[in-house]
Amino acid sequence: MRIWGPLVLDLMLLGAGEVVLYGLGLVRSRAEALRYAGLAFVVGWCMVGTAIVYALVLGASLELWQPIALAAALSAGAFALGRVIPADADVVERPERGVARVCAVAAAAALVGYLALLGLHSALTTSPTGWDTWAFWLPRAKAIFSFHGLHPHLHGGFASFAHPDYPPLIPAFDATVFRFAGAASVLALPFQDWLLTVAFVAAAAAVLRRRVRGALLWPALCLLVLAPQFGGSVGEGYADPQLARLVALAAVCGGVWVLERDWRLLVLTGILLVGASLTKREGLGLALLLSVALAVAARVEGRRGWARALLLGPMLIVAALPWQIWLHAEHVAYTPDYSLRTLLHPGYLFDRLGRLGIALERLPRIALSFDHWLLVLPLALLLAFLVIGTRSSLAVLVLGVIGAGYLGLACVYWIGTLPVTWYMRTSASRVVASLVVLAGVLTPLVASELLRKEQGQAGESPPR
Q1: Which comes out higher in pLDDT, residue 74 or 92?
Q2: pTM to 2 decimals?
Q3: Closest alpha carbon to 190 in 387, 6, 428, 458
């Protein structure tokens, strides 16, 4: 049960995600189901996980039948929607030739090989390795499993550990893994994290393949995955890597939507951003930032429908409200590491200018460090500057999110209550991951549009 139970859960998430994509008209054949399997798994994880969070807020005990019932209800609704929504036009991939084919195959092989090695390492890892994981992420998951729900006021319950205000999607999912395993065993968690990592890479590749040739796509994704910080985070049990993957995949769907205006991609962006907002506290801020950036980029692109991206903002706020209401209703006491209200106090900010200077200097050093991220961010920034005037919408998306996100993180460290050097030492390398991974997955899209313009193909429709 401890071995096969989590695999049953994974198949359930994959099936639910495939039905959701069927409902959106993206999957109508076996070939499409296979192509979008990674995307289906991530979407299923987001939707079922979000439903579990809301069920817990309403007092659910997270018995085994409850996640199954939630997945079945979501699948039934999506299937009914699919009977009305027409199928999306299938993607016709242009075969690579010559040197381009060799580059694509070599990069794809290296990517698959490295992910396989990560999978082997995750399978042999006996438990998550992150310090915060054992400090509060795993204890909260075990509390949900052991006490059959949130129950914040029980000794050893959900609110007994640090940062009880953090959204509960990660511990709720881990508790669901425990429920399917039949025990609060952490053995399956590193492998589950690896599955989500592989699904993220496959999902990004499937969406980007709509517009990007393999000779650009696979080397760019290979560079990102081979970055030490990317692979090193798999299996640690932190929420930050999953937050980074969700935001980055949402940026991919949103970026392609900006160019194609396929409403299905915007819906997927919303699903992924809801999952991100329930993954960690800063997830909502990143999700709102990306939604605004997508609206601005779409407006720069000059087509109709750009205001639809602005609707993501209210939707995300509404999606985050149940958790905030629960915190207040249950009188969960917590002391946040920072308060945004302090940004309105000039004297407080002036006295802490030294913290801002340290953050502004060290965050780029980490994000641009070859030892952490290779050349992922420098390459993305270079292409974003080159694409200005060609596809200014993509330049706005990449530079806007990275720039605003960088300043936002620096401000958080500016107003934080703990020593800023401690922040830099313990969390900076994890929080900048969202910006770097987003830049990395958008790199092949920016490069493809730049190359298309240089070849005089700007007016051509994407390969579909």
Answers
A1: 74
A2: 0.95
A3: 6
